[in-house]
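Section 5.1 Outputs to date
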Amino acid sequence: MTMQRFATELEETARQTSEMVEAIVEALGVLNGEAMTCSMARRAATERIVRALQSQDRIEQRLRNMGEAARRLATHVAVSDTRACEDVWASLTLDELRLRELSGVAGRVDHGEVELF
């Protein structure tokens, strides 16, 4: 897997994540709507949520596999300029990626009330 393919796979994972969230938003719309009876709305929302949960499983598998691919690639590719690699991470806008001490922490911290964008 070249780094270009790795980037493409990450972009595909982002697309799949977006679709998963859209399914959940649709389910919320169904539950908040008045076009269906309560039981029909629950059934329709449940179907959308189940599909979203199934896609979450696929996304998780994709990311775990890409993590494994990245670790294997790292053992085969010698990077001569470690500082340049660190500068790439430092240039990112998402703090969880930019700041090593926040890696993997932001998703586990209570951020208050849920906001829907």
